[in-house]
Description:
By secondary structure, the protein is an alpha/beta fold.
Amino acid sequence: MNSVSSVVAGRPARIAALAALVAFCFTGVTPTARAGSAEAGAGVGSAGGPLTVSRTNPRYFSVNRGGRERPVYLAGTNLWNNVQDGAGFQTCARPGPAFDWTAYLDFLQSRRLNFIRAWRWEHFKFKLPPDLDTNGPYCVAPQPWPRTGGGKAYDGGAKFDLARFDQTYFDRLRARVIEARERGMYVSVMLFEGFCAHVCDSDTMMAGHPFDGQNNVNGIDIDSIADYQSGSVSPAVRALQRAYIRKVIDTVGDLDNVLYEVANESWRGSVSWQYNVIRYVKRHEAAERHPEHPVGMSAIWPEGNDDWLFASPADWIMPGFPAAGHYRHDPPAATGAKVVISDTDHYAPCDVDAVWAWKSFTRGLNSSQLDCGIGDPARPDPAFDFLEPARYAQGDTVRQAARMNLLAMRPRGDLSSTGYALATPGREYLALQPEKSAEITVALTPGTYRVRWFDISDRQWRSASEITVRVPTAMPITSPFATPGPTVLHLKREFR
């Protein structure tokens, strides 16, 4: 299978897409650099310091260098099993090789990607709903708590002791974040996972969670996600959750390449709970004098509303609603109300191309994709190639972001005939032609501009003749490439 059908609004269509994704993921791939790529092996440098929301342009993160803001544009690719083993890729009866983190980082670095969504899978044993996947069950380890005994859990193994922590989990998390830091990559640490607690097969939805009564020695027993991720969480559950949050922060909170994400695709009743988690993370960082890290909130699914994300105390968000597919085909421009990381998991899992990356970039959005090509670093598969154009395009946007005065740029689709542009009017313009057309019309102010064109398919830049504008005008500009579009046009004013 080389693609997943386009995702449109509504649960059935996304379930169909996810079903295709699961089938696709079982093949696995090797995350290696594309042979012959001019950028294979290219480094991205070291992390530059804790991210903060830019004061100058809050669509982006920045780091402080000598009292000055340096923008950090994030783009990356991720999959469920990049922290814990077995999350949806090997059945309990047929365990496969562990995820190769170093190979994963090599894969990201060779494509100039700098962002990782580090997944948390809360269920130690689960099955997906039958309309999504008929395989499984799947077993996931390590978990944050040790399995010390006191009877048998749902999977026949020892029960969990929720009053203690399994250091194996936290050591792995810290080691992987440090290794990513050495490559100049930022890691979003997912604290909780909501999807399976309200969408997985009913037989395992609660039975496979450590907080189900049969699975722990602490007398904790949740009956539904409402007992775990909602405003009515019991004091005992809340205390355990907060102890876990503190442990995560104390494990990686001294590292400068960390972001936090509350939960992946929890239910609509979790909104107030997620707001409280965000505030608690910030309070604990302040109390323990940890460096402050950005905290994010991702899409509620399936009955989501992006307004809840924008109204949250989060520093950044991963939206996907109300119109699923919207961020795939015609993403809304970032306003600066929040840093937006557009992650395809929430609206088009494993179904994006190179133009998607540039559309996101020219609308002021950071980009991340759920990547069904990297499930198993030990087994190459031809299907891996399907998402290569999108991966390399994301890396190309990271490189271009570093070459522009990004903090001065704003989404200005009104200045381009295509509706896709970043601009500092009178100084610098970046316009996207997403179609197979040789021309872009850009509304320019007077001045002389250097002209560069980028062929998205061939990934080649080409300079063209300068243009001089005498009066404000909407100027049609033709690309120098023999084959028209998709292309990117970069104009930078010469001051003489």
